[in-house]
Design goal:
5 strands; 28% strand; three-stranded antiparallel beta sheet; mainly beta; two-stranded antiparallel sheet; binds FE2/S2 (inorganic) cluster
């Protein structure tokens, strides 16, 4: 089993990052590594950069065009 970090998009959901050793935001903020993290892809999370499940209630569709 590889310990190489991987990022996979979940269907109509977050990016799932496995073997995450370090996570740094665009603002330089460091987040504690939890090994596997789900990063928001829908833009609706109230706990960014992490997914909080809001994509379910927003019916996030990865194939829909972005809002104008
Ligand atoms: S992808 Fe889950 S809240 Fe955005």
């Amino acid at each position: 089993m590889s310990d190489k970090p991987t990022i996979k998009p979940r269907e109509n959901g977050p990016y799932l990052v496995t073997n995450c050793r370090q996570l740094t935001g665009l603002d330089g903020r460091e987040y504690a590594s939890q090994g596997t993290v789900a990063l928001c892809r829908c833009g609706g999370s109230k706990n960014k950069p992490f997914c909080d499940g809001t994509h379910w209630s927003h019916h996030f569709d990865e194939h829909a065009p972005p809002p104008a």
